[in-house]
Specification:
homodimer; 480 residues; alpha+beta; BirA Bifunctional Protein, domain 2; Rossmann fold; Translation Initiation Factor IF3; 3 domains; 11-stranded mixed sheet; 5-stranded mixed sheet; 23 strands; 34% helix
């Protein structure tokens, strides 16, 4: 193995000093992304893309398990098609990238690079849905989309990003509403079971809902510093698009009806959620189920006879069940320790001459840094248990952070005090008026409604903003 | 199950009557694609996209097995970046889609929707390659690309298509040349082992090589009607791009050198190759390794007691190893037979009351239509063997077709005669001059050089076009 020039693991800014700089350091130094010469667009490097591949594999299996099929729509939307649903075009027009030239000629109709694909799916649904027998249509697509952004941050906000967008059509409102909730639950389970991230879920207010939707549901995980990240959304459209696109079907009672529609999406932003929920001052911490390397094997005193051979043997055993990397380069052991810590590998396995003598090795959790001596006889079971423990440790830690950083405000003064002095979510009552949301955002410099949770606490009778009767308890927070 | 309205399997134009119409009928009626409102762009429907997913899974494993990592580059290329390599921009400029507006403002620099990503990779390589220790870089990306086309056909030629593009950088010319050949071989194996398609491979002439490459290698399967389809290409770039992008590294001898580069790509056009190589007048025939449904189970007399229960039991057993679909709808058995034939399902399994009594079922190959009675005891093994047989039957049939449709021409007259009267490839000697390629294309109305195969026959001493001394034997053919 070639000698590495840079023996020092590069320094990462401390989270407490500057969380934003910490994030930038981590994504760069762990080699998740690189900046490109294209304004607002990122390069996803192998280590970052491998996380996305693991996310895709996991989510795709969840989608298919409930009957969804993948398709691929064109990336261009003729301008007239985007304009068919009024609210939709108003929401997206300001952030479109537009192709005006093709094959050296000015196009007769401008093409929008898809910011989302409701309009394309509707155009197709119109052709393939004739009868109730053609329903439901349960489609999903994995693709890139473009939303022109002024200020960008890798994974969190980029002009181009990768995502999946589900688009479904149903015979009845009830079925479509069920689908909307089902897919929100899929996202919630995915965040908890795969990313080890607990999250509040609920309904978006009118102001915050998706352009063209009747209702938008959201999953709102809290980052380590108390800031919210919209982790995924699921929309119920009613028959608004179906009417705009003139999609009808012959119903069981032989009348012509409009189908009811949903869409739901989750993007590479979820990688930002992983980084900011779990990371620490030593770098990334990756949840085992999506970590490109689950176990970093570091041989100790690897020049001694038999060490590398034994390490390779153990590596081969583990590789049957886990994503394992044996680092037998001639970098120092200390450097390797720091390097794989920085890259967030959930589990380190150390193996030296004395361990081999004792038929054992050492497992070290990236989260607790606890060392465990385990027998080589049952190393597969030990690694499996240790990875499960890392997952649970991450989840519990994130849950504790969220609990500690979720505050209740029963008055305007309390709300403003928390917004000014604490970092986290605020639970507070709200009258239901957009004006109050806007006022609270203005006076706090950015605290917005995250969602109306499915189970609302009754904190008081009045809106914290205007004092009028409260209609809902809302979770509020600053956002990425 | 709902009663199907359309009891008739839709008619497909006979191949011999009109191969082009046959193709259009098959892609539409087997529900592989739909036309979109976007000129030149196709919608890939679930059945078509499932084939692409199987192709991706198979190829991706082959790439990773030889050390490649997946990444994601931006979809936009700043115009100045595309212009850095002269030949490259000349080749691609005529077919670019160009974004001129972003976020409601005219862009200061126009953005090209990627037609291929050499320039973006080079821009990134420049940043991450400093030393020979950073080499090789073995990258691949799965994405959409756009090449503006005037006349389009689903899968074969569309303005947007899906593909993978590998981009690698190497310390030496030798290593890069090896990589170019290695990846061509990966494509050849993939076509043979996964798609059951035999293919000629070889080098492209100067005229036909990729814009900016030193050498282009190609895989050229022959379609059923004798027309060629370029199935994948692998390019050796030398250090041309590296020089244009000023990419250097510190070599082992401490001097600054330019790395040597390759790229290689395979697209959704490969689905067109499957359709046109294997299909027949009854529709698609899908090679088992990429077929979304490998076994269509059709219960016979399904209203009789126990038939559907037994069928479901067998389905559950088979589903552990195969992609199986049990059709228990109330469509007629005859309709089901035709439907799954049309959709190209490689194997049909029939199960009726008498079969159940005999503890057996019937397997029918989509290729030979041969019926085999097999015991239910070892149904998994029987299905496995039958699918392997279908694969081999398809491969042998395609090979036979290719052999029968490959002709040798030793003179200009022979060449023109074959070009005018036969459908297939022509092997003929060539002087090496582009002028002769162009002349042959003109006088034949479209016969072009496909490749110079790795092993050339010596058919004569002179070029079939100009009569000057021959330098190579070339395989010629019309193309999609």
């Amino acid at each position: 193995m070639a000698k590495n020039n840079a023996k020092m693991v590069e320094q990462i800014t401390s989270m407490d000093v500057d969380f934003g700089q910490w994030y930038t350091d981590v994504v760069k130094k762990a080699e998740l992304v690189d900046y490109s010469g294209v304004k607002g667009c990122m390069i996803i490097r192998p280590y970052g893309y491998a996380i996305w591949e693991n996310i895709q594999k996991d989510l795709d299996a969840r989608f298919k398990a409930c009957g969804h099929e993948n398709v691929y729509m064109p990336m261009f939307i003729p301008e007239s098609l985007l304009q068919k649903e009024t609210d939709h075009v108003e929401g997206f027009a300001p952030e479109c990238a537009i192709v005006t030239i093709g094959g050296q000629n000015k196009l007769s109709e401008r093409l929008i690079v898809r910011p989302t694909s409701e309009t394309l799916f509707c155009d197709h649904f119109k052709k393939i849905i004739q009868s109730y027998r053609d329903l439901p249509k349960l489609y999903n697509q994995w693709c890139n989309v473009v939303r022109w952004e002024k200020t960008t941050r890798p994974f969190l906000r980029t002009s181009e990003f990768l995502w999946q967008e589900g688009h479904t059509m149903h015979e009845t409102e009830e079925e479509a509403r069920e689908e909307t909730q089902r897919m929100l639950k899929v996202y919630e389970d995915f965040y908890a079971e795969t990313l080890a991230i607990p999250a509040y879920t609920g309904k978006k207010t009118e102001k915050e809902k998706f352009a063209g939707a009747e209702e938008t549901y959201t999953i709102e995980p809290m980052m380590h510093n108390g800031v919210a990240l919209q982790g995924g959304t699921s929309h119920y459209f009613g028959d608004g698009f179906a009417k705009a696109f003139d999609i009808t079907f012959t119903a069981r009672d032989n009348t012509q009806k409009h189908p009811h529609q949903t869409s739901w999406g989750l993007s590479t932003r979820s990688i930002g959620a992983i980084i900011m929920t779990h990371g620490d001052d030593n770098g990334l911490i990756l949840p085992p189920r999506v970590a490109p390397i689950q176990v970093a094997m570091i041989p100790v005193a690897q020049h001694k006879e038999g060490v590398l051979e034994k390490a390779a043997e153990i590596r081969d055993r583990l590789a049957k069940k886990f994503r394992v990397k044996l680092d037998d380069s001639d970098n120092s052991t200390g450097w390797k320790f720091s390097q794989y810590e920085m890259k967030g590998v959930p589990l380190r396995l150390e193996l030296g001459p004395r361990d081999i003598e004792n038929n054992s090795c050492v497992l070290v959790s990236r989260v607790t840094r606890e060392k465990t001596f385990v027998s080589l006889d049952n190393i597969e079971e030990a690694v499996e248990a240790a990875l499960a423990a890392v997952h649970n440790e991450l989840y519990e830690r994130a849950l504790k952070n969220r609990t500690e950083r979720t505050f209740e405000a029963r008055s305007r003064e309390e709300f403003l005090d928390i917004a000014a002095n604490k970092e986290g979510y605020i639970k507070a009552m709200w009258c239901g008026e957009t004006a109050c949301e806007e006022e609270l955002k203005d006076v706090t410099g950015g605290v917005k409604s995250r969602c109306i949770p499915f189970v609302e606490d009754h904190l008081s009778d009045t809106c914290v903003c205007c004092g009028k009767p409260a209609r809902h308890m809302v979770i509020w927070g600053r956002q990425y």
